Amino acid sequence: MKQISSAANPLIKEAARLRKAGARQERGLILIDGAREIAAAVGSGLAPETVFYCPALAGPDRRNFFGLADDKLIEVTADIFHKISHKENPDGWLALAPRPERRLSDIRLGKAPLVMILEKVEKPGNLGAILRTAYAVGADAVIMNDNQTDIYNPNVIRASEGYVFTETAVSASLPDTIAWLKKNKIKSFAAATSATRAYTEVDWSGASAIVLGSEADGLSEAWLEAADDQVKIPMKAGLDSLNVSVTAAVIAFEAIRQRRV
């Protein structure tokens, strides 16, 4: 295992630059901050290029270095680790890995698939939470239209608890997504405050897609017109919507409840 104690080392400088989205995009790399998240990435088949390890922060549990070869491991001091970590309270593990690229054609659908579609979701924490919900309900895929945040933003990875790597998360245009749904005979349900039907009043037992819009504006007119149906979550007067990640969880678990009856 290599050891680095100088912040001027080129590898440390590069890792620090990767805290910025533009640098990650330019290099085709992602930054995976945390042992749990690295384990999820490696378990999904992703092969890190480099793993930084800080014994002062990680403690005695070395996690067998995730089965990686010694030449991929770099031990650093706590001061250096804080310079490259994206977390306020890091656990001493950080990996650099090639950016996964997934397409609609990569999605493998099971019987009566459940898909989640997100349009213009902006906040990394919300996207991460939705990915975690997708894993919890066993969704077949999460499709993002007109991304407003990087799927592999370190905050998305953290909020998803690493499930961004185990889920099939795909970016696609709205027209391509609609064509893909029709091809696979998946019925789309748009969540909209203007809908007249409650989410509990529709049949989720067949192939279904939950379509959710941005935190600020909801779904575009294009999606509201293209969806097979519209649904809403009834709530007390004075409140017309919930956080998008909460809405995703409420509707997704209703879909699963119906399928288990």
Textual characterization of the structure:
With 261 residues, the protein is of the alpha/beta class. It has two domains: 2-98, 2-Layer Sandwich (60s Ribosomal Protein L30, Chain: A); 104-260, SPOUT methyltransferase, trefoil knot domain (Alpha/beta knot), CATH 3.40.1280.10. Helix content is 35%, strand content 19%. The strands form two sheets. A six-stranded parallel sheet has the order 8-7-6-10-9-11, sandwiched between helices. The chain has a five-stranded mixed sheet with strand order 1-4-3-5-2. The longest helix has 17 residues, at 244-260. It is elongated.
Task: Chart the SSEs and their pairings.
Blueprint: E1 2-4, H1 10-17, H2 21-27, E2 29-33, H3 35-43, E3 50-53, H4 55-58, E4 73-76, H5 78-84, E5 93-98, E6 114-119, H6 124-137, E7 141-145, H7 154-159, H8 163-166, E8 169-171, H9 174-183, E9 187-191, E10 208-212, H10 221-226, E11 229-231, H11 244-260
Parallel strand pairs: 1-4, 3-4, 6-7, 6-10, 7-8, 9-10, 9-11
Antiparallel strand pairs: 2-5, 3-5
Helix pairs in contact: 6-11
Give a quick set of tags describing it:
60s Ribosomal Protein L30, Chain: A; 11 helices; Alpha/beta knot; about 260 residues
Q: Specify Rg, calculated over alpha carbons.
A: 20 Å
User: What structural class is derived from the secondary structure elements?
Assistant: alpha/beta
Q: How much helicity do the residues have? A: 25-40%
User: What general form does the structure show?
Assistant: elongated
Main sheet properties: 6 strands, parallel
The topology string of helices and strands comes to EHHEHEHEHEEHEHHEHEEHEH
Average residue-wise pLDDT: 92
The CATH class assignment of the largest domain is: Alpha Beta
- The CATH superfamily label of the largest domain reads SPOUT methyltransferase, trefoil knot domain
